[in-house]
Amino acid sequence: MHATLPLLATTHFPPITRHRTEVVQVNVGYVCNQACLHCHVNAGPTRTEAMSRETALQLLEYLEASGASTLDITGGAPELNAQFRMLVREARSRGVHVIDRCNLTVLHQPGQEDLASFLAAQGVAIVASLPCYTEELVDRQRGKGVYESSIAAIRQLNALGYGKAGSPLTLDLVYNPQGPSLPPPQAALEADYKRILGAKGLVFNRLLTLANMPIQRFGSTLVTKGQFNSYMDLLRDSHRDANLETVMCRSLVSVDWQGYLYDCDFNQMLGLPLRVAGRSRMHLTDAMRRDLDGNPIVVRDHCYGCTAGQGSSCGGALE
Ligand code: SF4
Ligand code: SF4
After folding, report:
1. What is the pLDDT of residue 319?
2. What pLDDT does 101 receive?
3. Contact, 222 vs 274, CB < 8 A?
4. pLDDT under 50 in the chain at which residues?
5. Which residue has the least CA distance to atom 7 on ligand 1?
6. Can you tell me which atom of ligand 1 is nearest the CA of 75?
7. Residue of 36, 146, 149 to mutate, ligand 1, most atoms within 8 A of C-beta
8. How far apart are CA 74 and CA 99, in angstroms?
9. Model pTM score
10. In angstroms, what CA-CA distances link 181 with 48, 83, 227, 301?
11. What is the pLDDT of the chain when averaged over all its residues?
């Protein structure tokens, strides 16, 4: 795979600083039942990195100390991590809103038969990737059979109340473009998804459109195809200053499976830790009483992926 960090090192991206932490996003490891083409963490079935119980307990302590109101759990397929259900239960018992970044097909993995009902019982919000509403494109990007399995999973979640009007159980879907282009306007695409999935009797709350980041597997593919520079030009040319105030790193701390802190998941994947007072990196155990408000954010050229066009974050478009 081509390394993309050296290609992103020189940047004119504006300096930005952190605000109060509202979301702790944890990547519990890279084990996944899928191996998608665009995956920015290079997750897959052969990866072995996984958060230990000790680190998961430190994470819960940090969550409380930080005052964050949301725990956003990602991976890999986070549900396959042995600490996942403990983290969910403990965070929920502390009144913290929990988001599970779910790939849908994990609901059909052996041993996960009760996963959907566990998530519903705990009131966990589900954010699930469905990069298109056609079988051909989903299977091309995420693997054969993924579309059918995803549709079956949405049906199962709907039956538990997810995505239904008046239900507290939310199901948001995530779209990202297939190639080196910006996502289309979020509201219009959401209406298309609702119409097409609605015809199958499926419902969901919101569609979140995300730009592809020029890093890891997707970035490497761009390099191989000779499209890296033109994609970066597109991101830079589409930059909007108005998006700078709401980029997710302002209010989110990203934690890796070993307990180190980053300004966002993308920086985590690039190996760019959060920097405090000149320290090269910081562990959960050092961060308990540290106020990160006002701390400079580590930026590189990939940051234009967050500020291009309508903007892009874990919560979809920024506009
Ligand atoms: S399902 Fe998500 S984490 Fe797993 S390989 Fe695909 S994009 Fe990566
Ligand atoms: S990639 Fe986006 S979220 Fe991450 S530091 Fe850059 S602007 Fe912030």
Report:
1. 67
2. 97
3. no
4. none
5. 39
6. 3
7. 36
8. 8
9. 0.95
10. 32, 37, 11, 17
11. 93
